[in-house]
Amino acid sequence: DYLQWLGIDAIWISPIFPSPMADFGYDVSDYTDIHPLFGTLADFDVLLTEAHRRGLKVILDYVPNHTSDRHPWFIESRSSRHNPRRDWYIWHDPALDGGPPNNWRSVFGGSAWEWDATAGQYYYHAYLKEQPDLNWRNAEVRGAMLDVLRFWLDRGVDGFRVDALRQLIKDEQLRDNPPNPAYEPRQGPYHALLPVYTTDRPEVLDMIALMRRVVDHYRERLLIAVGVRRAWFIDLLLQVPFIYRLQARAYRASENLVEDELKGLVTLAEAVESDVLLHVADATHPALDHQIETVTETLATLGIEQKPHLLLINKVDALSDRDARRQLAYRYPNALLISARTCYNIHSLLLRMEGYLLSACMRMRVHVPYHAMRELAYIYANATVEHRTDADEGITIEFLVPRAQAGQLLSLVEPFAPSVEYSLEQS
Question: Which residues pair with 314 in a beta bridge?
């Protein structure tokens, strides 16, 4: 009743299936029953009926990539190389040195291959060793997992959040994943390799299409994609992407102040209708480029990629050196780069964002120390300098800069300038 009172129209229930709980229920040992911790199938039917009576949709988690190692399918698969379900999982002989077949890594750390003495082979697990991956290239696996969807749809479930879609298909040749040239140790060992042979394989699209065809046999049902990087195909295959970071007008803010002040200004639905879309990124994040790419793909998924989109890259002053800041500015010339010192006043920040989007030019007044003459040269090359005052410690200049160059110029000036004053020009 309180959910209805709050105006909520759908509830998503994380895994409630029987499970040893090695990964909070995402290691499923039976896809068509309820864990005793949560009740029974009869209890679930009552919940579903009462939710629908109140106008609430019920969304279940669907975990197609892997099962628990205690699932009857895996117990059969590991029992013998000749078992009919042997090929339901991904088994392989050791490499010539007796180790794992290749260099694939588990998302949770270590090799993604686990030696099984009973089976006499390695099996693959993208996550925990207690979560062996299903072999979705096997037609019987596909049929069994699609039957799981039908089981719950027949009971009246309104849709599914489909977990870990990226990992659904792996390279048949088991080729090694290549090194990640941008890897930094602080990212963790999984990111030392680019998972090009273990995630986002082209055949994932075919598997999602199979799920969509099943769901489309039922009226007003929904599939929500999780963990898909190639977001441009979702509109054709799944109805909705599950978005972790794209939250509202300011999709993700890296500074608590900015995040707290901007969150909830515009809902995602309202963002689709809004005049301007904002995204705040963290300049120090090791996967900055990837995050920005993901946002771009998500905008395309929502069909709003042509809207004015302002990218704010925050914490520029935390970068290690001026060359790093300069490279960032050149990589994203239309972004508005901001430092911690410019976030102290949220109203000032909002004014700057509005001006950057709506004005043809920005008028700036800045003091440039003599040691930053390279940046001063850039200002002269890309802005109209209207006034200059020389002093012992540096030069104060006032200039107009076209909006297209404003983000790049700000990124070069703000990290060292004691103060930067802004005003807006409409022509």
Answer: 282
Residues 214-267 have pLDDT tens digits of: 998 998 898 887 654 443 334 444 444 444 343 333 333 333 333 333 333 334
The CATH fold assigned to 268-357 is Rossmann fold (3.40.50)
80 Cα distance to chain centroid: 39
Q: Taking the model in full, what pTM does it have?
A: 0.59
Per DSSP, what are the bridge partners of residue 361? 402, 425
- Report the C-alpha gap between 188 and 109 in whole angstroms: 8
Instruction: For the chain, give the longest Cα–Cα distance.
Output: 85
Task: With residue 257 as reference, give the H or E element that holds it.
Answer: helix 256-262
Q: Could you tell me the strand order of the sheet in which 420-425 lies?
A: 384-391, 394-402, 361-369, 420-425
Helix/strand number for the chain, H first, E second: 13, 15
pLDDT tens-digit map of 132-186: 999 999 999 999 999 999 999 999 999 999 998 889 999 999 999 999 888 888 8
Strands, E, within 16-98: which ranges?
57-62, 91-92
State the DSSP H helix or E strand holding residue 79, giving kind and residue range, or none if neither.
Answer: helix 72-79
Element (DSSP H or E) covering residue 421: strand 420-425
Q: What is the mean pLDDT of residues 7-21?
A: 94
Of 21, 37, 32, the C-alpha closest to 131 is 21
Domain ranges of the chain: 1-63+139-167+200-241, 66-135+169-198, 268-357, 361-414
Higher pLDDT, 278 or 384: 384
Amino acid at 361: C
User: 1-63+139-167+200-241 adopts what CATH topology?
Assistant: TIM Barrel (3.20.20)
Structure confidence at residue 398 as a pLDDT band (50, 70, 90): confident
* Band of residue 67 on the pLDDT scale cut at 50, 70, 90: very high
| CATH, domain range 361-414 | 3.30.70
Reading across the β-sheet that carries 222-225, which strands appear in turn?
10-13, 57-62, 159-162, 222-225, 240-241
Per the CB < 8 A criterion, the answer to whether 122 and 94 are in contact is: yes
C-alpha to C-alpha distance for 146 and 209, rounded to whole angstroms: 11
Rounded CA separation 228/298 (Å) = 10
Phi, psi of 345 (to 5 degrees): -125, 105
